[in-house]
Amino acid sequence: MVKTLDARTSQGSNGHNILTPSFTNGVPQLFAQVGLQVSNPGMFIRTFFSGIIEVTANQLPVNGNFVIEVYRGLSSSQQLVYRAGTIVQANAFFSPCVLSFTGSEYNVPPPGSGQLVYSVYAIFTYDPSFSINNLRLGPESFNATVYSND
User: What pLDDT is recorded for position 121?
Assistant: First the structure.
């Protein structure tokens, strides 16, 4: 029998305003973090997660690379569990660029503290000879649910 242990949402933006700080070329930007309570888990712990992040490309003179990374832990120096990316086209016609993602992690080790943390970073990389501002539009959100067997 499967048991739901916890479910959390981190929402940095509902998409109504441009977000600050914007991206610095190639520097990971934390945009979501959740702490799932895992008490008395069964044998196999697994996490299902999903999220969305949106950027604008209307100031982008060249194509950019947009990547999200999900880590188990409080920082990007922890365990990378998921990575996805897309190319952002340098053309206002294609703006905005929405990256939605769904992933999972199976056989997660039980946390000693009773809290399983996931941190999500977005990295935007573009030609460094250009200066670009106000790339983060929103929405930005991350949902995670942790399950185990009884």
Answer: 95
